[in-house]
Amino acid sequence: MASTRGEFSSRFGFIMAASGSAVGLGNIWGFPTQAAGNGGAAFLAVYLVLAFTLAYPALMAELIIGRHAHSNPVQALRAISRTPLLANIGAAGGMAGLVIASLILSFYAIVAGWMVAFCLASLVGLMGAEEASQWLTAFGLGRNLVFTYLFIALTALIVTAGVKQGIERWSERLMPILIITLLVLIAYVLTLEGATEGLRVYLLPDFSRSLSPDLILRALGAAFFSLSLGVGTMLVYGSYVKDDENLPLLGGVVTLIDISIAVLAGFLIMPAMYVALQNGVEIFGEDGTLISEDTLIFTVLPELFATMGTTGVIVSITFFFLMSIAALTSSISMLEVSVAYATESRGVKRRWAAPLIACGIAAASTLIIFDFSNLFSMVITLTTRYGQPLLGFIFCLYAGWIWQRDGVLQELRKGNPDAEHSLFWKIWPWYVRLVCPTIILCIFAQATLA
Question: How far is CA 301 from CA 269, 278, 435, in A?
Answer without folding.
Answer: 9, 12, 40
